[in-house]
Amino acid sequence: MTQIRMGAHVDQTDPIAEAADRDAGLSQFFLGDPQGWKRPTVAYEGGAAALREAAESAGIALYVHAPYVLNVATTNNRIRIPSRKLLQQTMDLAGEIGAAGVIVHGGHLSADDDPEVGFENWFKAVDRTNITVPLLIENTAGGGNAMARELVRIERLWAAIQAADGVEQVGFCLDTCHAHAAGEELVGLVDRVRAITGRIDLVHANDSRDAFGSGADRHANLGQGQCDPDGLAAVVRDAGAPVVIETPADGHPDDLAWLRERL
């Protein structure tokens, strides 16, 4: 098997040093406040150009996680329109640092909204965004009217965006905790996802503090939660994609060792 590049979600101040501390080949981080609407910024000393140069020199791949507040699917104009603006700003800055991808959650609607409107809003978001680096849509854990929780919803979302300009730059990020929380068995999941999307570009390898089908997005260190450990390892092996752990940071060394032992 080709060696899988691994790393963690880290503090944005110096993702190069964070990768070195973990003997990792990548770092994922936010550009600014994950819970805010302010324009994204690069915290690394020297700015975007310096971060890009340092990452290239060190051989570290950079992944940017879009802010949690972003929801391009919603029918609420006061959220959807700023979300599209923030997505474009995040995408532009990610391009400046040479990021390998921007990860964004699938979003959700209110309980009484027609989900088809959400899928149409996703089409518009992809079609009208200048996608400078791969845009990776991530499956989510909970929500009764989520766009990317169950595979049937992911299938409808994927079908909706196929006619959008730039769709060839849209990929998929598979989160193991989210899938477990959504009630999706991890064994065989990679094949079921690829049958829909044709690709898996990134894996978020996280254990879950909560039970199967709980809908709860609470990560645990690998082997310490309620995900099927064999299924979690199988997702990583079967996907063969770069891996990010988003677990409590004090357990990152053990988590990466846990994965490497199973590969």
Which properties best describe this structure?
single chain, 263 residues, alpha/beta, TIM Barrel, eight-stranded parallel barrel, two-stranded antiparallel sheet, globular
Would you kindly provide a written description of the structure presented here, covering whatever features stand out?
The structure is a single chain. The N and C termini lie close together (8 Å). Helix 4 (115-128) crosses helix 5 (151-161) and helix 5 packs parallel to helix 7 (189-197). Helix content is 38%, strand content 14%. The strands form 2 sheets. An 8-stranded parallel beta barrel has the order 1-2-3-4-5-6-7-10, surrounded by 5 helices. It has a two-stranded antiparallel sheet with strand order 8-9. The chain has one domain: Divalent-metal-dependent TIM barrel enzymes (TIM Barrel, Alpha-Beta Barrel), CATH 3.20.20.150. By secondary structure, it is α/β, with parallel strands linked by helices. The longest helix is centred in the first third of the chain and has 20 residues, at 77-96. Helix 4 (115-128) links the parallel strand 4 (101-105) and strand 5 (135-138). The chain has 9 helices and 10 strands. The mean pLDDT is 97.
Topology overview:
Elements: E1 6-9, H1 15-21, E2 26-29, H2 47-58, E3 61-65, H3 77-96, E4 101-105, H4 115-128, E5 135-138, H5 151-161, E6 170-175, H6 176-181, H7 189-197, E7 202-204, E8 207-208, E9 219-220, H8 229-239, E10 243-245, H9 252-262
Parallel strand pairs: 1-2, 1-10, 2-3, 3-4, 4-5, 5-6, 6-7, 7-10
Antiparallel strand pairs: 8-9
